[in-house]
Design a protein that fits this description.
Number of strands: 7
Oligomer: single chain
CATH architecture of the largest domain: Orthogonal Bundle
Strand content: 5-15%
Largest sheet: 4 strands, antiparallel
Mean pLDDT: 83
CATH superfamily of the largest domain: Intergrase catalytic core
Shape: elongated
Order of helices and strands: HEEEEHHHHHHHHHEEEHHHHHHH
Number of domains: 3
Number of helices: 17
Low-confidence stretches: 394-398
Length: about 400
């Protein structure tokens, strides 16, 4: 019976009919179980206070790979020390699983994991928990959640497939951490094999005519004091730069370099990045100081409270769309539109990716759709040339 090492554990050949157990020569009760499929799990066996007459208990420590051999050995030492003190680690583990509720799991996740996320992601997770997961499962024991429970919740959200799938992803992450924290049995994630809903690409691009209506509506509404100038400036900058909403709304004056025509973001969804400013964007920024509600404030787009940024575009955007006669247009579609216009003007994808702050070229591909107007113009040019050669009668209004 040798001492267990990484190389020895990995060299064990699994048997198809039954698991193999190999015990350590130096630490009594410490061993590894090799399943027929090849998975390797460290464990420790012991007897409680009754000596040889007491029932033998087996405590699974974790999978090889997730744990090193030495980490598992140290965990086994700690478990055996607890047994020597009169404790029962396996029973404690079972009782811990039974007592932990989903609300307890979320509280630990919120305190340990959410601070590591970007504020927008943390906000999304919190809303998914408060609006969907907590009402359904908050009082449930973590160990009792089953796949059928998850499937029912997921199907209940079928009318909003994107939200349903994001909720499923968060719940799966919580269950994975529950296993790592000893609140569920290993390999028992109830979100596995729950089929995601198909998500249709949400693509909406403004035409040149719609952009004109949008601009005219905002000009009229600012003049009539129906919206704040900052709200109109925010929309214009989103469309002119292709930046994300959070990037524009949180931009500070000390990040703006008009000489180099960039806003230098110290952080964003993809890390540090510049927002490139066209002459039109610079013109919008130049007009902000004079029209600002907080001319001495730190933010490009001042909010209602002094020293705070504009934080809600949803209501003014809705009114702007109504005035401009635009339906089904989200603020994020302004980013799509900026990319679409760039493609229509012949800007190549790597440059568009740089303008939008993408790390991967694949991300830019979803914006690579030519706007209708230049596409029709190109189709007409092709039709004129080929149609004439074919002897077709070409009717033109040029």
């Amino acid at each position: 019976m040798p001492k267990l090492t990484k190389s020895l554990v990995e060299a064990i050949e699994p048997e198809p009919e039954r698991p193999i157990y190999l015990w350590d020569s130096q630490l009594s009760g410490f061993g590894v179980k090799v399943l027929s499929g090849g998975a390797r799990k460290y464990l420790v066996k012991y007897r409680t206070g009754g000596g040889r007459a007491a029932p033998q208990r087996w405590l699974t420590l974790g999978k090889h790979g997730a744990l090193t051999c030495e980490q598992a050995r140290e965990m086994a030492r700690q478990a055996l020390a607890a047994v020597a003190r009169g404790e029962d680690p396996q029973s404690d583990k079972v009782n811990k699983r039974k007592s932990a509720r989903m609300r307890d799991l979320w509280e630990r996740f919120a305190s340990e994991q959410l601070p590591l996320k970007k504020p927008s992601t943390a906000g999304d997770y919190t809303r998914q928990w408060e609006d969907i997961i907590e009402p359904a499962f908050g009082a449930r024991p973590v160990a009792d959640l089953r796949r059928s429970d998850v499937e029912r919740l997921h199907k209940r959200l079928r009318d909003t497939p994107y939200r349903a799938n994001r909720t499923l992803a968060l719940l799966s992450r919580l269950m994975t951490l529950a296993e790592a924290w000893g609140l569920r049995a290993a390999g028992a994630n109830p979100c596995r094999y729950v089929e995601k809903f198909r998500e249709e690409a949400r693509e909406r691009y403004l035409t040149a005519e719609e952009i004109g209506r949008l601009g005219a509506a905002m000009t009229a509404m600012v003049a009539a004091e129906e919206i704040w100038p900052e709200a109109a400036a925010a929309v214009r900058l989103l469309l002119l730069t292709g930046a994300r909403r959070s990037e524009i709304l949180t931009a500070r004056w000390d990040w703006v370099d008009l000489e180099r025509r960039v806003i230098n973001l110290p952080d964003s969804k993809t890390g540090k990045k510049p927002i490139y400013l066209s002459e039109a964007a610079v013109e919008v920024i130049d007009g902000l100081r004079a029209a600002s509600r907080d001319p001495e404030g730190p933010y490009l787009l001042a909010g209602r409270s002094k020293g705070k940024p504009l934080n809600n575009l949803a209501k003014p955007w809705k009114r702007i769309c109504e005035r401009a006669g635009l339906s089904g247009v989200r603020l994020h579609d302004l980013r799509h539109t900026a990319a679409s216009v760039a493609v229509g003007r012949g800007v190549n994808l790597p440059v568009i990716g740089r303008l939008l702050g993408h790390r991967q070229a694949q991300t830019t591909m979803r914006y690579a759709h030519v706007d209708t107007d230049p596409a029709l113009a190109a189709a007409n040019e092709i039709g004129d040339a080929i149609g004439t050669a074919l002897g077709c009668e070409v009717i033109s209004d040029k």
